[in-house]
Amino acid sequence: MENKIHEIWNVRFINRIIDSMADGVFTMDATGRISSWNPSMERISGYSAKDALGKTCQLIQCSRCFGKNCPASIEKCRIVEKGQSEAKECHLRHKDGHDVSVIKNASVVKNDDGNVIGIVETVTDMTELMRARKQAEEAVFRLGEIHRMDNIIGKSRAMKQVFEAIRAASASEATILIQGDSGTGKELVAGAIHFNSDRREGPLVAVNCSALSENLLESELFGHVKGSFTGANRDRMGRFEEASSGTIFLDEIGELSPYIQVKLLRVLQEREVERVGDSRRRKIDIRIITATHKDLYARVREGLFREDLYYRLKVFPIYLPPLCERREDIPILADHFIKTMNKKTGKQITGFSTAAMRVFMDHPWPGNVRELENAIEHAFVLCNRKAIDISDLPIEIRQPEHLTHYNTSIESNFPLKSLKKNRRKLSKDALRELLDDCDWNKAEVGRRVGLSRTAIWKYMKKWDIPLKPPER
Predict the structure, then answer these.
(1) Parallel/antiparallel/unpaired status of strands 99-110 and 116-125
(2) HSE-CB of 188 using CA atoms within 13 angstroms
(3) What digits encode the pLDDT tens for the residues 112-149?
(4) Is 211 helix (H, G, I), strand (E, B) or coil?
(5) Strand duo 116-125 + 24-29: pairing
(6) CB of 59 within 8 A of CB of 34?
(7) To 10 degrees, what angle do helices 442-449 and 428-437 make?
């Protein structure tokens, strides 16, 4: 009696387990008729247990078994002959008529005498995974669209040379150094090289080397092991490892500290990384592209950048000209950004008035293509006509005297040399004026004076300037 109760309890326990499983589970008897059908199977197929019991597996019209279309007959199915089937991706037909992506597995159950008493099949719903795969593929496609070469706008002779350099770089595995002022499109060029190379199927991982302190940047690039420093509560893969089989793009490479320069040199030489706090070396298969708005060779002469690292990085240098050196591209760029903003805003602006275009052509564009794009976005906020006029442009573009005043105030702080050669002499008053002019956008302030956003932030901390604008 006790054994009988124990046996009943075991059956109930097993049934409860099956009913609580996320995977669909159903059984068939020796004649191929469905004898059980768990709740997950009801959810996946749309058929209730009442619908399924006593039917054959033809009910779900599985797309294939043993590499062929499902015969839907236990006499013709090879499951009895094989004993079990390998897990395979296929489709079953939902009660509503649509196909459901699943992984299906089957196994024969025999008694002690070796006679077949039934078949157990498990069905794993792949709908969410397939949706995630599709989203990932679409994201990669969109990223590839963003970094297509024809998204780098320009027909000038200087830009034709850039396009030729991108094509040559894409066909090689050489380390690339992209040089150019802020706003010239260095990240776009890095993306174009990656997505036109043999590594296009791999990841493109971008890191701004000026945005993090030395310790944080080391952990970001190389990863760390649990307990290597306060707050390291788990192992973490670095960006070099994340870029495996793809490309890593190191922006603002000129900001690297001497310690990180040494570690990067080792990566370039040996294609190995060590996580912070670990002694194990991990091989990496990556392509390295770097970029800077600084004169790296000048920093080498000043002892701020390692000469051996400099030559390792500039195997194939690409120079991006500032916008003021390719003025013939301004109308093309402006037209491109107008079309982009029309799609984004729903407006139908056709172009510029003659006067506004003249102002655009005369402006020095210290912020390069990024400044031009921002100027058009600014104009779209104000413009309610078919053509952008002077009054729609930012004040520093439509009022040259404003720009002259700005330049004069800067020059008064740097009377003998250019701004870039006297960055450390930036005064508190000049910085406050710049912050007001740029609506306290520290990145824009940095672009105007040739410094990184981090450097501007440090000056603000040094002179007790609040990080947010005071309430007016």
Answers:
(1) antiparallel
(2) 18
(3) 888 888 888 888 888 776 776 666 555 544 544 444 55
(4) coil
(5) antiparallel
(6) yes
(7) 120
Which pair of structure tokens corresponds to residue 245? 């089989």
HSE at residue 401, side-chain half, CA atoms within 13 A, is 0
Q: What is the pLDDT of residue 415?
A: 34
**Count of residues making up the chain:** 472
Torsion angle of the four alpha carbons 335, 370, 359, 392, in this order, in degrees rounded to the nearest 10: 80
Q: Which residues 6+ apart lie within 8 Å of 403 measured at CB?
A: 364, 396, 397
pLDDT of residue 134: 64
Q: Torsion-angle region of residue 383: left (phi > 0), alpha (psi -120 to 50) or beta?
A: beta
**Between the CA of residue 363 and those of 134, 165, 329, 406, what are the distances in Å?**
45, 28, 13, 14
In this structure, the strands spanning 176-180 and 316-320 are: parallel
Q: Which among 90, 87, 28, 27 is positioned nearest to 63, based on CA atoms?
A: 90
Distance of alpha carbon 469 from the chain centroid: 31
pLDDT of residue 132: 65
Question: What is the model's pLDDT at position 234?
Answer: 80
Contact 360/389 with Cβ under 8 angstroms?
A: no
Task: Give CA–CA dist 214/234, Å, rounded.
Answer: 20
Residue type, 56: T
β-pairing, 287-292 with 176-180? parallel
The pLDDT score that the predictor gives to residue 412 is: 36
Q: How far is CA 365 from CA 294, 308, 406, in A?
A: 18, 35, 14
Per-residue pLDDT at 286 exceeds 60: yes
Give yes or no for a contact between 158 and 368, defined as CB atoms under 8 angstroms apart.
Answer: no
- Residue the block writes with tokens 């792949």: 126
* Closest of 416, 180, 404, 423 to residue 304, by C-alpha: 423
- Please state, in angstroms and as integers, the Cα–Cα distance from residue 247 to each residue in 262, 284, 286, 316, 354, following that order: 20, 11, 5, 15, 44
Query: Can you tell me the distance from the alpha carbon of 156 to that of 60, in angstroms, rounded to the nearest whole number?
Result: 62
Residue 6 pLDDT: 54
Q: Which of 102, 68, 63, 93 is nearest to 82 (CA)?
A: 68
Q: Which residue has the higher pLDDT, 287 or 449?
A: 287
User: In sequence order, which ranges of 234-329 are alpha helices (DSSP H)?
Assistant: 239-242, 258-270, 296-301, 307-313
